[in-house]
Write a structure and sequence with these properties.
Elements: H1 3-6, E1 12-20, E2 26-35, E3 44-45, E4 50-56, E5 58-63, E6 69-72, E7 76-79, E8 85-89, E9 95-104, E10 111-112
Antiparallel strand pairs: 1-2, 2-9, 3-10, 4-7, 4-9, 5-6, 5-8
């Protein structure tokens, strides 16, 4: 097998809407997120709240500071601003989620973090 054949598919985040908000200097951004089976989003945060809905699949939403949320097709979720989280696809199909963010216009939508070091 070649390296390309061995590489796991990665998360995709497709921008659906990006609009000015009624609050000056802020934006409302909406994305369709797809996480292939057996993969995750990786640890990351957003500068504003994330309001989401699982369209298809099963996700364990892991947090650094609280127990995970087990989400399934039809589940809504809310992640507070600057909360480090990782959406892990724990199902047998590509997960699809609709996520809407309320963020300051000059802030990046996503800040990624390395995996935590494991104790030996």
């Amino acid at each position: 097998m070649t390296e390309a054949q061995e590489a796991k598919p990665a998360l995709t985040r497709v921008s659906l809407q990006d609009a000015s908000s009624p609050v000056q200097g802020w934006r409302i951004r909406q994305t369709l997120v797809e996480i292939p089976e057996g993969t995750s989003s990786g640890r990351h945060s957003h500068p504003g709240p994330e309001v989401g809905y699982i369209i298809r699949g099963d996700v364990s939403m892991e947090f650094d500071d609280r127990p995970p949320l087990e989400l399934h097709a039809g589940s809504p979720f809310l992640i507070p601003p600057n909360t480090i989280h990782n959406a892990v696809n724990v199902g047998s199909v590509t997960t699809k989620m609709l996520s809407t963010y309320f963020v300051e216009a000059d802030e990046p939508l996503v800040t990624n973090y390395p995996a935590p070091e494991r104790a030996e």
